[in-house]
């Protein structure tokens, strides 16, 4: 294989240690090898960076397995040309496997230009991605708590869902809070709770909330209600942080928001997952594959498996 990089390094990354193998020397000769193991503490990674700089390394490769590569990337970013390799693409031949051999194998592939780097977005996009993904999880948790509240209300024969389109709207929340507090809901009080735009009559709503709720139901409702409120407050705080991170990309958000079916929340997810620099993708197909919307293609012996 023809060498293309004079000084490069392969890193075999683990939770507590990272094994570095540096290959250096003229491209037309067999390279010299230098191998050293470092701790993954900040002190150890800074020592790794200094060692690579001393050997005048220009390119560094590591596998994208797990999350252990991230702190190493953060330390080395800006000082070297970093390559994040897909573990499946750089798998070594079967045989004796050691950390040193894995690092040396990565370095050899990189020296010959045989590793294609995965796309790693800039810092601010990575931060935005963390927040949008966490927001998605919190929304799922909040929906789960709402479903549990639905289930408890049915068990207590409180049929709010039959008279209110959204029991977590303004009217529904007022009624639910009164039920949680054990209040006796009279007609006059119910009329103050219900929004004037509600289609159901006060009589229908009163009949719907005339259930058989026990202390057990109220206690369970309070657990789920307080957790749901906490999640909603956290989501609101996340929205503010996401909006701050999106401030440099207002133009891109407006362009995405103009697409039918795309709102600002979806636009933020688009930017968080794909960034704003489309030149990093070779084609629209590569972009679709990166976004996870490209269908798989499995064919063997002229037979396609869906």
What does this protein look like?
With 306 residues, the protein is an alpha/beta fold. Helix content is 50%, strand content 13%. The protein contains twelve helices and seven strands. The chain has helices at residues 42-54, 69-76, 99-111, 123-155, 160-163, 170-180, 187-193, 202-208, 215-245, 250-257, 264-274, 284-291; strands at residues 7-13, 17-24, 32-39, 59-63, 81-85, 298-300, 303-305. The strands form two sheets. It has a five-stranded mixed beta sheet. Strand 6 and strand 7 form a beta hairpin. The radius of gyration is 29 Å and the shape is elongated. The relative contact order is 0.09.
Short description:
The protein is of the alpha/beta class. It has twelve helices and seven strands. Strands 3-2-1-4-5 form a five-stranded mixed β-sheet. Strands 6-7 form a two-stranded antiparallel ribbon.
Q: Give the assembly state of these chains.
A: single chain
Q: If you average the pLDDT, what whole number results? A: 91
Number of helices: 12
Question: Uncertain spans, ≥5 residues at pLDDT below 50?
Answer: none
Percent of residues in β-strands = 5-15%
Could you give a short account of the major beta sheet? 5 strands, mixed
């Amino acid at each position: 294989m023809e060498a293309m990089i004079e000084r490069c390094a392969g890193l075999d990354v683990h939770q507590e240690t990272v094994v570095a193998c540096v290959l250096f020397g003229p491209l037309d000769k067999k390279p010299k090898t230098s191998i050293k193991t470092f701790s993954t503490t900040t002190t150890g990674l800074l020592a790794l960076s200094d060692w690579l700089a001393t050997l005048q390394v220009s390119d560094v490769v590591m596998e994208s397995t797990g999350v252990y590569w991230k702190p190493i990337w953060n330390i080395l970013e800006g000082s070297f040309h970093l390559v994040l390799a897909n573990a499946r693409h750089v798998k070594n031949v079967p045989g004796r496997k050691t950390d040193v051999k894995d690092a040396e194998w990565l370095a050899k592939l990189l020296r010959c230009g045989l590793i294609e780097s995965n796309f790693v977005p800039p810092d601010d996009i990575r931060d935005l991605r963390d927040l949008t993904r966490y927001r998605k999880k919190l929304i799922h948790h909040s929906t789960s708590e709402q479903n549990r509240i639905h289930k408890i209300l049915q068990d207590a024969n409180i049929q709010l869902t039959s008279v209110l389109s959204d029991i977590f709207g303004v009217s529904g929340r007022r009624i639910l809070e009164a039920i949680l507090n054990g209040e006796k809901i009279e007609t006059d009080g119910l009329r103050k709770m219900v929004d004037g735009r509600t289609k159901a009559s006060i009589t229908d709503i009163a009949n719907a909330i005339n259930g058989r709720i026990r202390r057990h139901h109220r206690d369970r409702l309070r657990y789920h209600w307080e957790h749901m409120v906490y999640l909603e407050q956290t989501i609101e705080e996340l929205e503010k942080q996401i909006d701050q991170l999106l401030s440099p990309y207002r133009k891109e958000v407006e362009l995405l928001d103009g697409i039918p079916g795309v709102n600002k929340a979806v636009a933020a997810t688009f930017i968080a997952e794909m960034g704003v620099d489309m030149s990093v993708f070779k084609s629209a197909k590569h972009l679709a594959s990166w976004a996870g919307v490209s269908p798989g293609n499995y064919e063997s012996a002229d037979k396609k498996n869906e």
